[in-house]
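Good day; I would like, with your permission, to put a structural problem before you. I would ask you to consider whether the tokens describe a fold that such a sequence might reasonably adopt. The full record is reproduced below for your convenience:
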Amino acid sequence: MKMTNLGILIPKICDSTYSQSDLYQFVNLVQKISLSYLKYQEVIGKHIRWERRERNSELEDMAIDCVAGLFMRNDENEFVQLKRYFEPHLAGIPAPDDEELLILLRRLAIKKTKQELSRIFKERDPEGAKIIRNIRVAVKNSNDFGTFKEMGREYIFFQPAVFAPANDCANTPVHTVGEDEIPDDEYLRREQPVIPEKTLRDLYLENYTPKDHVSTSIRKMLKVTTEEEKFMNCLPTDAIARLIRYTNFEVVRSKLISQIAVDSPLDYVRMKEIEEAKRNVLVKIKSKIQVQYVHSNKISPEKGDIYYRTLADVLDDITHNKKIESYYRHLRKYVPELTQKQYRSDERTIFEYLGKLTKKWFREYLKDLL
């Protein structure tokens, strides 16, 4: 993004001697800076758009909304924020050149965009904003966490001293990685990819309990990355937030189910209908296992029976307010010698597809009932 007349344009904006074409040119430039930042945030995986489907004008509209506050005027029709920001720089000797002014403008426009994005996200998703805030408070108040930023994304990791020999976290000083300091590459295994969120969730749920504090949840998630050596030894803050949201939702859902009291005839009939829906789903999933997998020799009849009984347990968990468990832990009840490695290589593809299908069919039946 190149601009060759900022040394003329910005003073005009600040002292209100601009023409309409000058103002249009300046607003257009500020919008483009904001838009480029929004597009970059999407590239690194953030959900910026309000709607899932892409509309060409949505980001452009959001960019202008984000920087609109910079163009607020006072009673003298002056752009207050722009005047306050630029005039100290313009008063310097020598005056800043176009390149320096563009750097200053980018800094201002991106800062304003970040502020407005934060406000937009809080309005769009107050629960998500609360989770992010709680994560940051937990990290700030705990001496065993460190953070760093890379490519616009924040990561959380265990401080190396946590795993030092004979380390007592309560008494041993912990080296904190500074804001601009890059953690040790070998310790963080930075040559490895970030753990996939589904893998993290499955392993984390093995030790998850609904009453965990946010700091405890973060420690349990980071323990997973520490033990899974083929992944980076850190986690993106947004991934942690999504997993906390997921478990919070499951807890609320379980509580709502537990509050279904079988007191009235209507309640009794409703529970009977839910049990009937569960039986219908199990009939369909048993047929699916036999026709698609056992008869084609993709799995043995014994394994097909284990899959069926395990999926029946999954449905019991959903309908009877039992503790949330991963597919792996469910399956291990019938195959005690099953390891995580064996599960991922031999069982996960087929079994988790069947699990998703079971839940999908059950949801469809419940929609008809409710």
Summary: Residues 165-180 have pLDDT under 50 and may be disordered. The first strand starts at residue 145 and ends at 150. The radius of gyration is 28 Å.
